[in-house]
Design a protein that fits this description.
Two copies of one chain form a homodimer.
Chain A lengths: L12 E6 L15 H4 L3 H10 E7 L9 H8 L11 H8 L9 E11 L2 E4 L7 H14 L2 E2 L2 E7 L4 E7 L17 E2 L11 H17 L8 E9 L6 H5 L3 E5 L2 H9 L3 E3 L5 H11 L5 E6 L1 H8 L2 H11 L3 H6 L4 E5 L16 E6 L12 H5 L4 E4 L3 H8 L9
Parallel strand pairs in A: 1-12, 1-13, 2-15, 10-11, 10-12
Antiparallel strand pairs in A: 2-14, 3-4, 3-7, 3-9, 4-8, 5-6, 6-7, 13-14
Chain lengths: 398, 398
């Protein structure tokens, strides 16, 4: 984006992101996709009357994106240039308060015998056990040489750690052998600036090993994905809009926070999301609404559940569109096809509801999106297109 | 373009550029576009029988181009790399003779009271007034310190200036407060090399102020868009073709001249354009025919007028194609959708009439172009494609 083309006005843009919505023709369901099979009268009538269709490729052809690159590209950032580390995504997903300078890591409990990691998942101990042991560690090791420790349990054997202090470089190797039956591994600094951070991390690992000597399964920890909050240009600065993120899942609020968006906390359901949108509509120009349920159904490989997730979103549309945004975008951060039970590389269906009067006159699903007038573009090209439709971009050249 | 692939032969390529031809489905006219609604039997039968379709994106997705970038990209130049300044476009549009080393500026008369610009447009004085005052300035200030002054009136309060002399750098800020009720602004040099140019420009502004003291409305001038004829590689050198531009509007002849094309002066109407094409057909390989009326209708938001403009061009086609060019290209430099009354970012419909025997079998309009076999490409990629169809590009690699 060329900053000098950005226009300032109060035109509203709404991104309704159905996580993992993209899918592929499903042999078990007459080769339809969930978007095609779902009854979604509100979305489809908007699509037919005021909508143009297309597809977005999150990272590149054939590349399956994680949630980080999927969302960065939606918001106009080059996902190959900017990165949100795994440790950062993990602490954001656990709703931990990540601050500038923090060093974040994904972690899990493991079983160690005679300095050999015999089970990297500590027999997949139940979540309650992880909660108990995390509390034990937090009480016993609140800090190491002035570096504060923040620990939060996840599901099963997983947890996350934030090291809060000065000079904590993220240039560290994983403290994880990555395979069972290999010796314990400590974190190595990748450069001289990371020597202090590796010392703190490794001291933590040693202290925990002493503390957990009596535990049967979980008597050690593995840490990986060391990362700091990335230095990414702010969304608002880039586009000259105040932006609000409304999401039920913490990870997506976290990603929005990393991009400098304001974040509406604690929306438990779609009704609360709509209320947050309504209540804040006058104070912002850009709104990011994140729906997680489509992705969960795709991950489960559950076609009827994904259809139901889409049909549950559809009744929100009249209220959203009654706010009269200049552009309403409905798309996903990536595809999560039910037959694949996971993220995929497939282009993501895209619907733009605009005020130019143009329309493709088609319902919103993958097959129509192939022939939509937007064509197939990269996700990072979506923001300029939406800004254009939002009348927020000046002419280039005389 | 890779020069080493260029082949030399006498195959003819014709670009028929309908300025701003691209449009969007129009709710007022049953969601048709002007190209779709126009009766253009000659274009459509050529399209169906020998045509392939696609779309071109002038600068980038979401970016609305001016005439400069629109045409530069059509001729295979990267519009982000090469630029034709605003001052240059203005003097070209007024048919002034721009030479190497000239410094060009857009200008207008304004009203100044107590060193405050109270009206940047001098009450939009009539064109006759501007003609009279421009003559007054030309007589009184023919040169400043050896720098010759060329002044030409435009419409209403607008005019253009060429400063002709040595060491006239274009690195100058606008001598324009850009808003009413702000103090008079002089031009500042952006670097040391532009000190002399800023001195000349500001001396001109001061001399004019003294000269126009008695005028009621137009007692000052604002100058902006300082620019020199850009150093752009010649079209003929790039592609190994002699090129002729035929256009009724001076700005497009001017752009062609900047690219080193020969220019046919004074074609008043389409019959004269056809005659110029016929008379010069043997002496050139590339022909750029520019039609302005489609853009004018789009700018006016006048759908029937745009339909009529297309229908007026259609009868030219049999005579143009009877010359038997290797490739006939019909497209635009950008879209000017009637509902938007101005240039837009929308991809531009593209028709290539070729001699390969291939065809898409469809009439020429935006909707068919979405599914045409060329696909959606960047305008700067059009020249290589046309050269290929013109059998003017060698194989790359063994």
């Amino acid at each position: 984006m060329r900053h000098e083309l950005i226009l300032n006005n109060d035109n509203k843009l709404i991104f309704l992101i159905l996580d993992g919505v993209g899918d592929i023709p499903n042999p078990q369901f007459s080769y339809t996709t969930p978007l095609e099979a779902a009854k979604k009268p509100n979305i489809d009538s908007l699509a037919r009357e005021k909508g143009i269709l297309g597809r977005i490729i999150p990272v590149d052809i054939g590349i399956t994106p994680g949630s980080g690159p999927g969302h960065l590209s939606l918001f106009g950032y080059d996902p190959l240039e900017h990165e949100i580390g795994r440790g950062v995504l993990e602490v954001l997903g656990l709703n931990m308060d990540l601050q500038d300078g923090d060093l974040a890591a994904r972690a899990n409990f493991c079983t160690i015998r005679d300095n050999i990691v015999v089970d990297r998942r500590a027999g997949r101990i139940p979540t309650e056990e992880t909660v108990r042991i995390c509390e034990k560690i937090s009480s016993a090791i609140p800090e190491i040489e002035g570096v504060k420790l923040l620990i939060k349990p996840g599901k099963s054997h997983r947890f996350a750690v934030i090291f809060r202090g000065k000079n904590l470089s993220e240039h560290l190797t994983d403290a994880d052998p990555h395979k069972d039956h290999l010796p314990v591994v400590f974190s190595e600094p990748k450069d001289d600036k990371a020597i202090f951070a590796s010392h703190i991390v490794n001291t933590f690992i040693e202290k925990v090993a002493v503390l957990l000597k009596g535990e049967k399964a979980a008597n050690g920890v593995l840490l990986r994905g060391f990362s700091a909050k990335p230095a990414i240009p702010s969304f608002s600065d880039n586009y000259g809009m105040k932006a609000l993120a409304i999401a039920t899942y913490p990870m997506y609020r976290g990603i929005a926070k990393v991009l400098g968006m304001d974040v509406k906390d604690e929306t438990k359901d779609y009704q609360e999301m709509l209320k947050a949108l309504r209540d804040n509509y006058d104070s912002y120009q850009f709104f990011f609404l994140h729906i997680k349920e489509t992705d969960l159904a795709g991950e489960d490989g559950n076609f009827p559940q994904k259809v139901a997730a889409i049909e549950t979103v559809d009744p929100m549309i009249p209220e959203i569109y009654s706010l009269n945004p200049q552009v309403l975008v409905i798309t996903g951060d990536h595809s999560t096809p039910c037959p694949m039970k996971g993220h995929s590389w497939h282009p993501v269906p895209l619907l733009l509801v605009t005020k130019t009067g143009e329309r493709d006159g088609m319902a919103f699903h993958e097959k129509n999106c192939v022939t939509g007038s937007i064509g197939t573009i990269y996700s990072k090209q979506l923001m300029p297109l939406v800004l254009a439709h939002g009348l927020r971009l000046d002419k280039y050249g005389a």
